[in-house]
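User: Could you check the structure of this?
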Amino acid sequence: MSDYGECNKMLLFLILVLSFSFAVLMKRYLIPGASEALVAAVAFLPALLFFFQTGSVAKLSGFGVSVERLQQQLETGIAEVGVAIADLEAGWLSPVDPDGPSFGQAAYWESCSRFLVLRKSDVPAFNTPDFSKYVRDATWAIRSSLTCGKLQGVIVLDETDRYIGSYNSSFFSEALAAWALPDIGASNPDLSNLADRIMMYSTFGTALRFPERRIELGDGYVAAVNENQTVEQALTDFKVPEVKFVAVTDARGVLKGVLTFEDLNYFLLQALVSSSGS
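Assistant: Sure, the predicted structure tokens are below.
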């Protein structure tokens, strides 16, 4: 079996353990009078959502329960609630600081970030020492966040913080290759050869130089939702393969934060528990 399949099996096992544990705790402490059907739904729903997201199943039924109908009921319930994304900021909308650490700072501290921000106006002139240092720092910062297992994507903004597009973390998997990155603390390192290799032999290298152009070529996705739209409207974006998060902007297109697939799944679960327990 492929590594991808083995990874999915391990992830599914972890999801089942966590969801069953939560179902037991819910039955014992949160909703003692919860029906067995509700407990079963809470225990199995995360795994079923995982199946649908990975495309493993499209329809499943058994024990008198249709998973397809359950998913439709969940989405219908969220649509009826009509919760605006802006109302989720306190606990559900993941913040992204446009003025957070630069690639150089993130590289020096070997930061472990969920999202990194790339401004096209910050890209130095090509074939200059500043550009070579920028490519090295960006590669190091991205690789550090990939290695720690947190990076979900790189978000591209213009100089006014307006959202241009974003890249999933998988787009930068080449950064994990065994390139000999010069020590961040080294004095006067020769970075030109390294930058040339990254630019020549990696796909993401050209994205570092032309971030918005590679997005236009289809390597990133430009989809974003307005903060005043409902959570239900964001569901459609997650039906696109490989999309793990969507950017949330204000009316002017300025980035407000991101809504991740995991956050939205948990929101759906909370909505199911609340509606079933009332």
